[in-house]
Design a protein that fits this description.
This protein has 313 residues and is α+β, with helices and mostly antiparallel strands. It has helices at residues 121-149, 151-171; strands at 2-3, 9-10, 49-50, 57-58, 76-77, 97-104, 110-114, 177-179, 183-186, 207-210, 218-236, 247-255, 260-263, 272-275, 282-293, 300-312. The strands form four sheets. Strands 8, 9, 10, 11, 12, 13, 14, 15 and 16 form a nine-stranded antiparallel β-sheet that branches. Strands 4-3-5 form a three-stranded antiparallel β-sheet, with no helix packed on it. A two-stranded antiparallel sheet has the order 1-2. A hairpin with a 6-residue loop joins strand 3 (49-50) and strand 4. Helix 1 packs across helix 2 (151-171). The relative contact order is 0.10.
């Protein structure tokens, strides 16, 4: 210890070791715990909480992971697959205890038996109704989208609707209207006897064509819009010389929608009326002469007039 001039001792500072010197407060470091993400230990069910640290599935009632202890506040929730919503479910199974009558316990109390769960038809019907309502709504929505974006489907629906409308109108007694073609052609015709003579509403003129089994005479009717044919009136043969030329004994009607029908006329000069089938909402029709009653002047066929009746859109 040092001394001053007045013989007063002066304290000499003692050096402090480095490890016990005063230091400023520092933030404590959190030691990271290594957690390995592995598969869940059980099958995940709808509503389970999936831990974001270790991928373990936990019941929805837990707040911390059962495997690693991490918080489940921001854990992902397992969603139910969409297709399971349309599967009918059974009602909750209720188990009741009813006192038994077949025996007693050692203390004298009656034994208890599990009551069997009963089938609830009302619950099943409600489930079927709910699922059917959802499926119906989905079907209507899909059909509406398809109708709006797919023209062939839209045309088919419109055609069916018009066909149903025509049938209903015909059922309630609507009068048939004459149907006139805007264009009429033939694959073969004799000179001076064109196809238009068979649709000019004059019995004094007629269409005449050479007939051959290899090249059947054919008339083609073109309509300005969709029509539904119901009746056909045929005036067969030449108007001024009926037996001179051949007369059709079989007529095949081929429509623009791919359908067809066949009529068999009689060999008479009187008008013959036929009911036409499968000619709904068509835009054209071909009349093919499949066979003839032979005439006296050679192998040909004559048709004086063809009248069409039906419904227009």
């Amino acid at each position: 210890m040092a001394t001053s001039t007045d013989d007063v001792p002066v304290p000499v500072p003692v050096p402090v070791p480095e490890e016990i010197r005063e230091k400023a407060p520092q933030t404590a470091r959190v030691r990271a715990v290594a957690v390995t993400r592995t598969a869940p230990t059980h099958r995940l069910q709808p509503g389970d909480l999936v831990c974001g640290t270790c991928s373990e599935g936990n019941p929805s009632t837990r707040r911390f992971c059962s495997r690693c202890g991490a918080s489940l506040v921001e854990a992902a929730k397992v969603k139910e697959p969409w297709w399971r919503r349309f599967v009918p479910r059974r009602g909750p199974r209720v188990v009741q205890l009813d006192p038994g009558t077949g025996g007693a316990k050692a203390d004298g109390r009656p034994t208890a038996h599990l009551a069997r769960s009963r089938f609830d038809p009302k619950f099943v019907l409600r489930q079927v109704y709910r699922k059917g309502r959802v499926l119906g709504a989905v079907a209507v929505l899909c059909a509406g989208l398809l109708y709006g974006v797919y023209p062939p489907f839209r045309d088919a629906v419109d055609g069916r609707a018009q066909s149903l409308k025509s049938r209903v109108a015909n059922t309630i007694g609507s009068d048939l209207s004459p149907i006139h073609a805007v264009s009429m052609t033939a694959n073969v015709s004799e000179r001076g006897y064109p196809a238009l003579n068979a649709a000019d509403e004059l019995l004094s003129t007629y269409w005449l064509a050479p007939w051959s089994a290899s090249k059947e005479p054919t008339l083609t009717f073109e309509f300005a819009h969709h029509v539904t044919l119901e009746k056909l009136i045929l005036h067969s043969g030449a108007s001024n010389a009926y037996i001179q030329d051949g007369r059709p004994s079989e007529l095949r009607l081929v429509y623009s929608d791919g359908e067809s029908s066949t009529i068999v006329p009689q060999d008479t000069s009187q008008a013959q009326t036929f009911t036409i089938s499968h000619a709904e909402l068509i835009t054209s029709m071909q009349l093919q002469v499949g066979a003839v009653y032979p005439g006296g002047s050679g192998s040909d066929v004559a048709v004086a007039e063809i009248e069409l009746f039906g419904l227009t859109t």
